[in-house]
Specification:
This protein is mainly alpha-helical. The chain is built from three helices and no strands. The chain has one domain.
Length: 73
């Protein structure tokens, strides 16, 4: 498997509407997997995967922020 093929899979899932609907669950599942794998990862892998988790968290936060009402009146 190449990085280009993986990126193509990501793009295809996005274009087909198969992106995770519940980003909070996706982020929590990713965090649980990362925690269980943490000791097997090297420093660069930890930095990269933590960045992926941060992107998931940000997307979930932005989604929640865009659906909330800022002015209740």
């Amino acid at each position: 498997m190449t990085p280009e093929k993986i990126l193509s899979m990501f793009e295809r899932q996005y274009l087909e509407g198969k992106v995770p609907v519940d980003l909070e669950d996706t982020c929590a599942s990713f965090a649980a997997w990362l925690a269980s794998s943490w000791e097997q990862l090297d420093g660069n892998q930890k930095v990269m995967l933590t960045s992926v988790g941060s992107a998931l968290w940000r997307e979930g936060y932005n989604l929640r922020a865009s659906t909330s009402t800022k002015d209740l009146w």
